[in-house]
Structures are given as C-alpha cells and as structure tokens.
Amino acid sequence: MSKPVVITCAITGSQTRKSMNPAVPITPSEQIESTHEAFEAGSTLVHVHVRNPDETSSSDPGLFAQVQEGIRRHCPGMIVQFSTGGRGRDSAERGKPLHLRPDMASLATGSVNFATVIYDNAPPLVDELAQAMLEFDVKPEIEVFDLAMLYNARDLLDRGLVKAPLHVQFVMGIKNALPAKRHLLEFLVAELHDVMPDATWVAAGVGRHQFEVAQWCAELGGHIRVGLEDGVRVSRERLAKSNADMVERAVEICAALGRAAATPEQAREMLSLKAAA
User: Fold this and answer.
1) Is the pLDDT score of 275 beyond 80?
2) Is 61 helix (H, G, I), strand (E, B) or coil?
3) How far apart are alpha carbons 63 and 38 in whole angstroms?
4) How far apart are CA 110 and CA 128, in angstroms?
5) CA 100 to CA 267: how far, in whole Å?
6) Nearest to 23 by CA among 110, 13, 6
7) CB within 10 Å: which end of the chain, N or C, has fewer?
8) Does domain 7-270 have CATH number 1.10.357.10?
9) HSE-up of residue 166 (Cα within 13 Å, Cβ side)
C-alpha cells in the first residue's frame, strides 16, 4: 500500500458546462491554467477534451495543440492524455489529434448505453483508433464501461493492435452501465489481473460517486481519477472551487492510507511511458 498513486485530472469533459460550475475550464488558456493548478496540487496525468466557444465538444487539432503545448511548458513531465470519445463521429474525426503525439489517448473498446444515447464504438472503429495510436506511438488508456470491454482489450492485445502492459480505466456510476459498487470494482480488478496480469488500472466514479470510488481505488492499490469532467462537487454540500480542489482531496485520501501522489517520473515509470523530453 506504499505504492505511489497516479492521480489523473479530467479537467473538462465534453458535457460539463460552466452553468453547472463556473470553475469548468473551456478555452485553451483556461484549460492550461486549470491543469497547472491541478499539477501543483499533485496530479501527474491530465485527460484532455477541447471545446468550441459555445462549449460544444471539438476534435480540432489546433485546440488540442494549444492545450498540449501549454501543459508541456508549464507542467514539466506531466502525462498528456487526449480523449478520442465523441458520439456520432467516425474514427478519422475522433482520431484527428493523434498526430500531435500525446503520451496517451483514451480508447473505449465497445459500445455502451448512456442515459439517453448510445456511446457507439463499433469494432472497426475501435480497431482503426487502436491502429492510429500504434502509428503515432500513443499509449491507449482502455476505457471499460462493462465487463466485455475488458475481454475486447485482451483481443486487441492478442492481435497486436495494442502493446502490453495496458492501462485500464473502469468507469462506474453511469446509468445503464457499471454501477458504483465496491464489490463490483473488486471483481473487475481481479478479472483484470487474470486476463492481463501486468496491466495497471484506475477507476472513475461519475457524479456523486467520484470520491467514493477514489477511496476504493486507493484502498485496493490502484490509481485515482478526479476532475470536473466526472462531477462538479467535492461533497454534497460544496461545489468544487477548481480541478485543483478535487486533486487536493484525492491527495488527502491517499495520505490517510500511507500512499503519496506519484511524481511525474514515478507516474511515467509505473505506466511504462518514456521519459518526458
């Protein structure tokens, strides 16, 4: 339990709006500043979506480039992870920013029902995104919204479309997908160790489950994800002041268990990423 914790900060997402919390960063400059604050608070991995001026989700490589450049300048060694999510877009559109060679990118390995829409990740689309990540030397973070996606990731590994060791994120608390239950996370982690023994893992709790799931991750030896993409509160009573506010709470959870937030160098070593330039 003394293993350092890689704290991911999901700073914006594609749906969380300023009307939900004024701290949500939208423009590249806001995202860079918010990431820098989270980095100083203890986060060593940032999950990046970009937005248009009207707050709608964007795949504009120019916006991703601005954010990545600013993060690399102000947050030395921080791991930059781009989102390739987005409903209703093909693989070419969703993979547009990969040529910028972030350290990592998200890769959902199957489709899932959300509350009102289908997050569609058909097998050919998954293969095409995985192939693009191979081409640009971008490590995928496998997004698991249900158990089948874990086995799908193993299939990608067997076919040479991803490289071991994988990093897997379990997403919990979305309606119609994985509920946020500790015994379920314990089962998923055990299954991961059986299917891909050398893989690392993190779990994201959505909405009110964010810090509950973070606690379980810290206790079970995994890594932690927090941020304004996943929820806008640090407690039932209080909105988050910033992404850094959320990271600070995650650091406190780790410290209570004798675990420290990983340094950028430690995070890169644990996730089998090359050293920062």
Assistant:
1) yes
2) helix
3) 20
4) 13
5) 21
6) 13
7) C
8) no
9) 31
The tens digit of pLDDT for each residue in 187-205 reads 999 999 999 999 999 999 9
What is the C-alpha to C-alpha distance for residues 272 and 199, in angstroms, rounded to an integer? 10
Convert the pLDDT of each residue in 230-244 to its tens digit.
999 999 999 999 999
Distance, CA of 231 to CA of 210 (rounded, Å) = 7
For the chain, domain boundaries: 7-270
Residue 201 phi, psi dihedral angles, 5° rounding: -150, 160
Cβ atoms 4, 262 nearer than 8 A: yes
3-class state of residue 63 by DSSP: helix
Residue whose entry in the numeric block shows the structure tokens 């480039």: 65
Contact of 194 with 184, CB cutoff 8 Å: no
Spatial CA neighbour of 87 closest among 69, 112, 67, 60: 112
95-138 residue pLDDT tens:
999 999 999 999 999 999 988 888 999 999 999 999 999 999 99
Q: What is the pLDDT of residue 1?
A: 58
Q: Are 214 and 224 in contact (CB under 8 A)?
A: yes
Query: Distances from the Cα of 79 to the Cαs of 46, 138, 181, in angstroms?
Result: 6, 11, 29
Angle at 189 between CA 187 and CA 194, to 5 degrees: 95
